[in-house]
Amino acid sequence: MKMTDPLNESQVIESLLRTISPSRLSLFLQCRLKFWFRYVARLPKQKSAALHLGSTVHAVLKVWNKARWRNTPLTLKQLHDEYANAWMDQSIDPIPWEDGQEETEKVTGWRLVETYIRESKIPPDLRPDAVEVPAEADLAEHGLPNLIGVLDLVQGGVIIDYKTSGQTPHAERSIHIHEIQTTSYSVLYRASTNKREAGIEIHTLVKLKTPKLVITAAPPVTTQQRDRLFHLIEAYQSGISRQDFIPSPGMHCASCEFFNECRAWS
Predict the structure, then answer these.
(1) Using an 8 Å Cβ cutoff, are 151 and 185 in contact?
(2) Which 8-state DSSP code applies to residue 208?
(3) What is the DSSP letter of 3?
(4) Which of 29, 77, 86, 145 has the maximum number of C-beta atoms within 10 A of its C-beta?
(5) pTM of the full predicted structure?
(6) Buried b (16+ CB within 10 A) or exposed e, 41-62
(7) Residue 62 pLDDT > 80, yes or no?
(8) Mean pLDDT over residues 70-91, rounded?
(9) How many CB atoms lie within 10 A of CB 90?
(10) Res. 90 pLDDT band, cuts 50 70 90
(11) Where are the domains of the chain?
């Protein structure tokens, strides 16, 4: 595979060892070859319709939360205008829409936003603690790279993360599936505030005929969860250092954008 970045592979790997993010760690543990395609070779891939919808919903909820933080809450009409702008902003990369698909997906996305505003029951004049805040935790004392990430929303000491899904999440499985991300956010929050979070919530907007919001709540992260995260980062650090970029065939391959490249791997 030909690199798309002027940096050579060893320089890219060196930079990947300096910091670690929850998304990079999750992808590396899911499939090391997919990680290589995305973060080392940096192969360009077309944005999917589902990703476009999810990123647009995320962007408009960010606007809504920032308006609350500034004590200038938006009306539903203003929020709809922001949604239309966000949809266009997220369309910079061309998407292979089928006939009529874009308008259908656009309507679906707005219905998800409406559902969230209605069902989250968060008062528009309730000021968040933080919105889309970049954070970093120095893990040098553990022999690990710095952990970096962005906290979607902190409200009343509770760390909130947004998801969109095509099916209703199972509470216990959802907590387990997203544990790398939520534990990372806890480490970042504590490093930034010197306080323990009040709890963690995953807010999942489900794309059903009648959209719904599922809020999965979890208590503050335990020492065991934090230690488990650190061991996973250790595995990342070791694997990247060895350039251990092998495939992990499984059910997740069906939706992988690098399926053809993986089939050609040797």
Answers:
(1) yes
(2) S
(3) -
(4) 86
(5) 0.91
(6) bebeeebeeeebbbbbbbbbbb
(7) yes
(8) 90
(9) 21
(10) low
(11) 130-234
